[in-house]
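G., the chain you wanted modeled:
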Amino acid sequence: MQSLMRRIDGLWLGALLLWLLPFAALLILGLVWLRQEGLVLVWLGSILLFSAVGFGLQVWLKNRQQIKLDAARTEADPSWSPAADGAWAIIEDFANSVEPDDWPLEEGVRLGELARLSLEKVARHFHPEVEQPLLELRVPHALMVIERASRDLRETITEQIPFSHRLTVGSLARAYRWKPFAERVLGLYRAGRWVVSPPNALLNEAWAHLRKRGFAMAQRDVYRWLLQEYVRKVGVYAIDLYSGRLLLSEDSPVKRLTQTSRADLEAATLAATEEGGELPGEPLRILVLGRSNAGKSSLINLLFGQLRTATDVLPDTTRALTPYRLERDGLEIGLIFDTPGAERLSHKALNEAATAADMIIWVSAAHRPDRQTERQTLDALRTIQAARVDRRPPPMLIAVTHIDRLRPLREWLPPYDLTDSSSLKAMSIQAAVTALAADLDVPIANVIPVCLAEGRVYNVADSLWTAILNQMDHAQRTRLLRCRDESRREENWNLLRRQLANAGRFLLALPKRVSAKH
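Predicted structure as tokens:
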């Protein structure tokens, strides 16, 4: 305190006191007048009332701010693979453990350490066998992670923190530097209030304590949220990187055709190359599987709406995967693949077709109870898909055909309400759907009964197509992962080709540079 007083010029302090003297006199005279008029209790009550209203308003504002912060919180990408979901759980636990006291704002180097720890936790999850997993980080991708996380955090701060666009680094530093001096001056002021008016000082101290708690909590919550968001942002890009999803290119991988889909589109009847014009992007790949004579080709004919083939009917038998271009409302562009019976496809061909698919429609006949081979095929597919932790399995729908052949055989008066117990046909269809869901181990909600017979078409354009649209988000996420994998492989080859070409040019020009120096 003595050192502080020595720093203050006495004349300046006297001038300041003279300036404050009229206000102090007004305060004292006001208190005397309130006492003479008997309004001291009214004045104290008004202070309590307005203080309570102000505190309630402050709590409401704090809650409103918290709601906004929660809405801006970074969440996991639904298109992540199961392995990436495990890494996100680690990042969430780490973010929730971050405390502002452990990472002071004035120590910028510590924030870099926080980012390094976040990266290391993700790297450790994807490379548990490596002693130093961070060394598995490629240099261009490491720079991209920090760059994108900082960019996103800047946008979030600008949108969510009031007056952040006016805040400078220098003002933050000065605020922290002058904090001790401001606390000492505030202590002198508060001590003076006790001498002038003890009751007033007591009320103000109590209100200041509540207000300080509220403000301190708000500031602490905001800073904790910033730290947690910083961890999550770095974690998101680190997961994209270590799971193989992060590309050096900013372009979406679904905006251009993959080589596989380009070849399939060219093989499809009336493909885009014959129609002219640029293709809009990577199509959604829908694979139709099932046993022979289950109705796969007929189902494809009915799903097309307007058939895009040279003839009006697809071949009765198919010997290989046959692509057809599909365009309907709700689907930008799609490729649908007709297949021979699943029992006629080799194990390798079946797995490759399912791996390249974004959605699978399994066609099964309702009047054929022998489904052991279908269950074995689906179990084999599910086992292979579960083993791939870098990809999510495509959504699967089951189309139950030939429902018109269920008992009573001669009755066919659609539509049928499957909850109507008074209709024998509806009960038979419901029983077939329930049995098939159990036999194939699929959710009953994904089992759609349809009829494909000529003159008896039922439930294809409405229920089945609605089910396909309901699975569209899941299918598009599957397509994104598939395209990202292929784009990453193509990007690696293109980078290697350019690097080798540039290295060759450098070596060819090296003798000239050496001779020029000599």
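Confidence is low (pLDDT under 50) at residues 193-203, 270-277, 306-319.

Shout if anything looks off.
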